[in-house]
Amino acid sequence: MQSRTPAARTGRPRSAAADAAILAATRAALVELGWSKLTLGDVATRAGVAKTTLYRRWAGKNELVVDAVAVLFDELRLPDSGSLADDIEGVVLQFATILARPEARSGLMAVVAESTRDDALRERIRVSIVDRQKRLVLEGRSRAQARGELPQESDPSSASRTADLIFDVVAGAVVHRTLVSGEAVDTEWARRLARVLLSGLGSTV
Amino acid sequence: MQSRTPAARTGRPRSAAADAAILAATRAALVELGWSKLTLGDVATRAGVAKTTLYRRWAGKNELVVDAVAVLFDELRLPDSGSLADDIEGVVLQFATILARPEARSGLMAVVAESTRDDALRERIRVSIVDRQKRLVLEGRSRAQARGELPQESDPSSASRTADLIFDVVAGAVVHRTLVSGEAVDTEWARRLARVLLSGLGSTV
DNA sequence: CCGCTTTCGATACGACCCGTAGCGTAACTG
DNA sequence: CAGTTACGCTACGGGTCGTATCGAAAGCGG
């Protein structure tokens, strides 16, 4: 059995400052160069760190970018606005704000594209980014049920599938609007989306 | 004024067979290697073509992949099934079938990610891929209005925004389900999505 | 204070891919 | 046949990759 920090009880500890500097440098490089032209050597230089240090901590560009982008999603919060419509609208606008940042736009979609051929990378994205978003959907549903805005679903399996559907619809719509259609997510759009979802969920789904 | 084919009335014409071979080789390379490890030299070798020929026709990897993937979306058709619900379900399943192919998964999202930093590339994607999908949404709406399933909207600006919203929701949800959540789009999921959209659109949106 | 262990910075390395240039040949036009 | 363009082939400098090596630095246990 090992303690919570299994590795390295002896020897020189890894510099936490270097970690932060590397991730910040990665985001800066994403803004200036985009994903495809980002090189690990350049990131190391920006961070004031040797290239070997980078390779010691991350397997490659994909893993590094995932970690660098993941922290952007820390600020996601479910606004307890009192109504489900306002909750949805608030989350959509928050998500869109994050996706408006260039380091999120170019970095996130690139690693998602790479994850189609790398199961470990997909799992890493799921744990550090996607699940954090999905939690908001589950939380919002449970609050709405407590308020009586949504019915308590009897079949747990069906309820789970519905939650998955809503998550894919909300996140997918925002991403598609921002990156593919290339238009901004404003308050009016968020309100329209929330209205469509509410009407759709109110009926027997 | 120039004729429909403005360039090259004299000299040796470009080989149409080479074009097809290159695009097919690109798709094969996408399947085997994915976007990031795909190299133009490898594609040229696979196509039995000199590397210089490739560079004469495409500016770079991004443009080549867009053209190679675009033809996958040629098969998209709006099934005139008689009801809006079935139309939506049919389009969703067709779109999902295309996205299930590995060359579409890895190629499409990668170029979309790149297009966040390249306006010309974004426009190329829009013309050769996105608009082709969007046309189905507009066609489906007009058919549904003819059948009386959807109201004739009075405000054209509002109607346009609604169509944009529906398009982002449908396409975004399918893409997100397939690539981010990593789960298959089956008939049941498509039916649920169609149901949510129909209820949402039926009310005053 | 002193070994032990691990990390860090720096440098060097072969391998690969990039994008372009040059050249001789092939294909088509008038 | 002369003119023009596309093609295959080869070669090139430049950049990035990921790894190896080495001495110095930073903590830990005695």
User: Secondary-structure element sequence of chain A?
Assistant: HHHHHHHHH
Largest sheet of chain A: none
Biggest interface, chains and residue tallies: A-B, 52 and 52 residues
Topology-level CATH name of the largest domain in chain A: Tetracycline Repressor, domain 2
Q: Can I get a quick summary?
A:
The structure is a homodimer of 205-residue chains. By secondary structure, chain A is mainly alpha-helical.
Task: Describe the overall structure.
2 copies of one chain form a homodimer. Chain A is an all-alpha fold. Chain A has 9 helices and no strands. Chain A has 2 domains: 42 residues, Arc Repressor Mutant, subunit A, CATH 1.10.10; 133 residues, Tetracycline Repressor, domain 2 (Orthogonal Bundle). The longest helix of chain A has 29 residues. Chain A is elongated. The relative contact order of chain A is 0.11. Chain A binds a DNA duplex (30 and 30 nucleotides) through helix 2 and helix 3.
Keywords:
Arc Repressor Mutant, subunit A, 205 residues, DNA-binding, mainly alpha, homodimer, elongated
List the helices and strands and how they pair.
2 copies of one chain form a homodimer.
Chain A: H1 16-33, H2 40-47, H3 51-57, H4 61-70, H5 84-99, H6 102-115, H7 119-147, H8 156-180, H9 187-202
The structure holds a DNA duplex (30 and 30 nucleotides).
